[in-house]
Amino acid sequence: MVESTDGMSGAVKTMAVERSQVRWDVVDLESLIASGHPARAIWELSGRSDLSRFEEGVRTREGAAGRPCWPARLLLSVWIHGYSQGIASARALERMLQQEPGLRWLSADPVVDHHTRADFRVGHKEALDDVLAQFLVLLEAAQFIDLNTLL
């Protein structure tokens, strides 16, 4: 069991990101985007990153009561993909999560509400700024995005 400096113990309890699920609306999430789509690169890069600083202070833990939270990897990836598409508003991202294939794939299709994404961005501003800058440079170097879109 992991004991943190704030007295919380156990691993952070997060909601599962399940893209292989079958749904009644017959959407094959894996087929929504091509194998070389930028959303896949963003997801891959976020999985290689140390995101533990985004979990500091999260109260919901495995083995304890409480609803699981969205994984930091998912929230970060949605913001990065949104920024790469010129979307900088949590509310606009919420609308796009229902339509844009890359965002639908990243979130495994549930719409992550704008409050959750906005709270994540505000609550982790410094860490998010650092990670976003690194990701955007890597994605532009790999020609997945054009930073001129953000200007």
List the helices and strands and how they pair.
Elements: H1 29-32, H2 38-47, H3 72-84, H4 90-96, H5 101-107, H6 114-123, H7 125-141
Helix pairs in contact: 2-3, 2-5, 3-5, 4-6
Task: Please characterize this protein's 3D structure.
The chain is mainly alpha-helical and 151 residues long. The chain contains seven helices and no strands. The protein has helices spanning 29-32, 38-47, 72-84, 90-96, 101-107, 114-123, 125-141. Helix 4 packs across helix 6.
Short structural description:
The protein has 151 residues and is mostly helical.
- Distance linking N and C termini: 45 Å
* Extended strand count: 0
Uncertain runs are: none
By DSSP (H or I, 4+ residues per run), the number of helices equals: 7
What's the SSE pattern?
HHHHHHH
Please give a handful of descriptors for the protein shown.
45% helix, single chain, 151 residues
